[in-house]
Amino acid sequence: MHIKAVYLLLPLVLLMHYPAIALEDPEAWLDDESDNRTLLVNEGRLKFHSGIPNHRVLQTSNWLTVSPESLQSGWVALYQCQRNLDPVAAVEIVYRYEGIRNLRVISSRRIDHARVEQNSVQMVQVHEGGEICVEAEVQVLKTSGEGNYSLKSGPFHRRFLDGYYPLQLDYRIRWPAERLQLESVEPERQEGFSIREQPGELTINTLFEGKLTLMIHFGTPG
Question: Which pLDDT does position 11 carry in this prediction?
Answer without folding.
Answer: 52
